[in-house]
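Reader question, answered in our methods column.
A reader sent in the components of a multi-part assembly and asked whether the whole thing could be modeled at once rather than chain by chain. We filled in our standard form and ran it. Here is what they sent:
COMPLEX SIZE: two components
ENTRIES:
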Amino acid sequence: MGTYQLCLHGDPLSPHLPDTHSPLPQMDLLLLLLESPRELCGGPGGVPAVCGALLELLTLPHTPPGPPRALLLLATVTILLAAGMEGSLGVAPFVALLLQEAEGVKQGGAPAAAAECLRELLRARGPGDPPRMLPPGARRSLLGRLAVASAVQPLVLLLAEDPDESCHTAGADPGASPGTAALTAAGPGEPRITAGLSLSGSQCTTSLDPLDPPDTVLTEPGDPRATASLDPGDPLCIAPLDSEGPHGTALRDPGIFFHDTLPDPKDPRATVPLDSRGLDDRAPRDPREPHGTPPPPRRLLTHSFLLTPAAQAQLLWVLRGSEGPSLSSSPVLNQLLPTAEPALLHATLWGSQGGLCPVPATLQHRLASLAQHPALHPSLRLFFLFCLGTPPVPPLPSHLAASLFPTSADPPELLLPHFELAAAACSGRGDEGERGSCWLQALMMGLAAGGGPPGVFCRALVAFSKHLGGSGNPPAELAAAATALLLRCPHFAPQILEAAGGAGEWRRALGTALRQGVLGAPLPQNEGGLRGYLRVLAQAPGPPWPKACSRYLRHLAAQGGVCSDWRGGQGVLSAAAPLLPHGAPPLTPQTIGGGDLDVSDRAGLHAALITALGPPKLVTILAAPPLHVPPPRVIAEGGGSALSLRSVLPPFRLHRLPVPAPPLPPPFGAPLDPWGYGRAVARGGARGGLQLCLHLEPHHVPSPPHLQVLALLLQVGGAQGRLVRLGPGGADLGLTLRPSRTPPPVLPVSAVFSSLGGAAAVTSLPPLPLPVVAQLRPLAIPPPWDAPRRRRMFDAMWETLAGGPESRVVWEGAHPPASLTPFVLDEGGEDRGWVVAASLPPRGLALLWGREGCVDMRCQRWGALIPLAQLLRGEA
Amino acid sequence: MLFELRLTDDQSFVEHRDTCTRIDHSSVRSVRVEGGDLWPVVAFRKSGLIYACLPLVEEALEPRPSLLTIPGLSQGLALLFGILDYISPSRKNEAELSAKAGQLRTLIIQACPLGTPLNTNISSLSSSFDDIQVVPTDVKQPAWRSNTYKGKPQVNVCITEKVKCMQYDKRDVVDMWQVYGTVNCKCDIEGAAPNVTLTLNLPTNGSPLQDIFVHHCVTSIDPAMLMSSSVNPLDDSVYSGPYKFPFIPPSESFNLCYYTSQVPVPPILGCYQLIEEGSQLKITVNLKLHESIKNSFEYCEARMPFFNRGPIAHLEYKVSYGQLDLSREKSLLVWVIGQKFPKSSEVSLTGTVTFGDIGEEHPTDYVCTGNTAYVKMYFRIPDFTLTGCYVDQHSVQIFAPGKPKITASRELISSDYYIWNSEASAPTMYKSLYY
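And here is the structure of the entire assembly that came back:
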């Protein structure tokens, strides 16, 4: 290792190499190459140069053996694959080098790593790509390597994946290296193929190299030499394990690796019975195997015991589609079934030919045992349970299904899958299933009564309904348990409602029980409770009970407390809205919201809508319209007082205006502004929020239709706006968005509007681009970092982006604009200037440096510079 | 990933994650990232760490293929468990943990140098990269064994049995207990593929072993042993030995086999009563060591946590044996019984507890609401197994030159040993209703 110098001055790697050439940095660099090949090569253009450098290193006479060489090989392949160059002509010398190394010919080589590289390279090529096959003769040399050491895993996998039929085709291999054989497969009546080392005679067509593996010879049918034994003194004649030992003989037979040149069973010319091969006759035979030597894949399978479970599983998958190996009849199965190796059992179950192991009964039994084995990690048990419950694995027999029933003491991540499996098993099983169903109901009630996290009960209820479908009314205890759970954990109302809604025939009764529970419970004293209760009143399945609910809401509003602010008031109004079409009286602006203008506005809107349209039309207006409106078509139509709701092309456009926001609108109830002008609020109520100024412009100026835009929905966690009238000049709209997560650059928008004649329509508007400041996100900087440290970080990032997208904007202020305040890293001084750094999805950084009457900007994409400049100029 | 696992501060309802129609039947998740969804991400949590990987799917992703048709699913899972086995012994030592995490990079490159897992047993790999360049020199040598040991043969076997228990002291609820064991081996033997045979013995009245599964190095086992299972209690296929395991040992320490057993009695019988009287709780705990259990503990203590309540403000108690401690957080009572039960084999505790106002820092629990509460037992008995299972040193056969040194040990450890308050509801584990 001491003579090893990876640093080649002048090559693309040089900038990344440390000055010292100690082995550790070299190893680190190779590891980095394995992890980030493209980045270290400096992009696609650098790949050939780096590959060339690595190949040059590999061919140097004094390249050190051992780990650095193995890593060099791996790094080279990684770069080739990352650059998609595995099929290029320039790779041929590298493949030759890998072959040589994998054969073990090269002293100090890294044969296992070379074989793995070779496997990955060949695997990366498409199956129709001729170079996928190993060069003629090479395969046999590799097999010879296996004869020396059976457990060279990459070799086994390589040979299993590449069936090298070229070895079986007629004609000598002109490119075969000395010591390798070129064979012709035997046809009917032609000489047989057999194998051996110490045979002599004119039929032997191969020359043997001392390093070469046992080779093949051609003999006449019935030739006694076909059964000649290997020379015990030959180094390649590996003695099998002691057949009298405690392990039997099933698992090891090195002779299997000698048969690479046997005819393909599918080849009509290759009619030689496999069991007539001389070498095979000499190899110890497994008494459990049927008579006749199995084809090579089967033999690879039989000897897979010597591989690690990971490689053995890989082999099983590779052999899945091959002719010959049948796992179910292989002694290997007896070695696999008693283990708990997920990869092995998975491959056993699914990797066998035909997709399913033909011994499902034994395997099912083992999997059922493993799925509940207390010594295993829950994720592993879950995996085995998943295997059991996934088609086409046959349905579980009753005794196995019963053993897998959950208990309330199981951890939630196991309880639920067991519950669903049990529910599915009970379905359609008569009395037996009925008993199981009772058990599961009892378990659900235990869960609702506090036997686990509330979400578990809800999911169990949905699973139960899905498979066993409650009919009639649910057991009173179950409804009571669900209600008790709601009252105890009101913040789980969404899940409880979803569970009730998905409970089939039970949904109505469960919804009624939940609504009754809320109406009979003390008024909520905190925001979570309020939100949960209101959600139940608004969304529980079953009749809405408008009068009782409305009474409750008025009582709630009058109480003040949690309803006296923006959030509480909006929540109560949202719960009251669906009741209005059913005749519930609206809440008056004076009684709700504690004087909050938004809440009063909305309460006034409800009252005005009732007066203007009447309850029936409110159904579609107050219900949230879909965000993704289907293509224009009539959704529903009616006559007279019934509502006509259409999905139509939008008669107006939506533009975003620069801030500041327009002045506040007149209070609700004031005379309508003929120019149309309104205000909108966003649900969510978080402080601050993103201020938007929008302008709605009618299409048909100067005689636009008279429209009343009733709701505007922006897909950003929910935001509603309203306009009172859209006149010829359009209308401006001030909107505060309070998104709960990073908004997308453009927002899908839909609107519900109504003509003054009363026809209501829903429409999709073109997506609305958001200002860049809405997309900026602060960097994750540790809070303890002081300004100098943050400044150093900024300087480093600034240097990193040098040479990329960059721009300068005139800026007279001494401080950054207020909208960038959250992203200021250092306010600096006159000499240094202020600096701002932020993350700007979808990728990249936005860096701003304000100094001497200007702001310099650097980004990772050009498209970000323009909106940033607009932001600074106050245009965004 | 944190969002997907509900580990972020924001606990609000997110439909695609929290919908009740979604039941996770496997550890596979879909993680939303810029540009789409990452799938299938195999991920699970253990001891505060998240183990995650993204298996390669070689078939078309639309429509999503069935999970079980993806070989990488189980291989990824195996790799993660290999990492877990490597990391978990050091999880309580931060310095050791970060050192191991630093080593992981090189070890994973050896485990799957180009992405295909070749050896998921991370603990068996060295950081010297030998495993990706050295080839066994003997045809018989398994890939999972190195041939580096030189010296006198030594075999160390340790049987660890753990006992789980749920006791209720109620007429209508059946108690449950279960024993499961692990046989750990370390074999220092020369040679490429030495053969070893180990036999587990049971006394004549010992409880048969069930649900046996073995390390992949075991070359064969009696099929009757394979079918001896707890999944069908009416089945008469009980196998009571001999439990003979022929194997070629790996070089490192490994778990030769795991088993379960159904023993007739739990080692410690208990009764817990917790009653609310006004502002205070009255507690009574009685414990009795079964006569068949070796009365020689390394430690034995009973812990009584109090959830969804404030700190313990006042405590009055009387113990017949041992001592009672109050935890620093004042939400847990620890009754230290010590190394032995008294001659009567019975101990008791009575007391009253009052609590202060609950704050955010006090432990909460969904199960232990109201008066639902438990005592959890922690104990270890060296040189003892509940099943009676042991390794006779003379029965260990090693087919290698030299007289081997055999060391065998055993222990019984409590695991999830609960005694529930008999005066309130409690999670149950009994399943006989359906049978």
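What stands out: The first strand of chain A starts at residue 192 and ends at 196. The mean pLDDT of chain A is 67.
Send us your own complexes using the same form.
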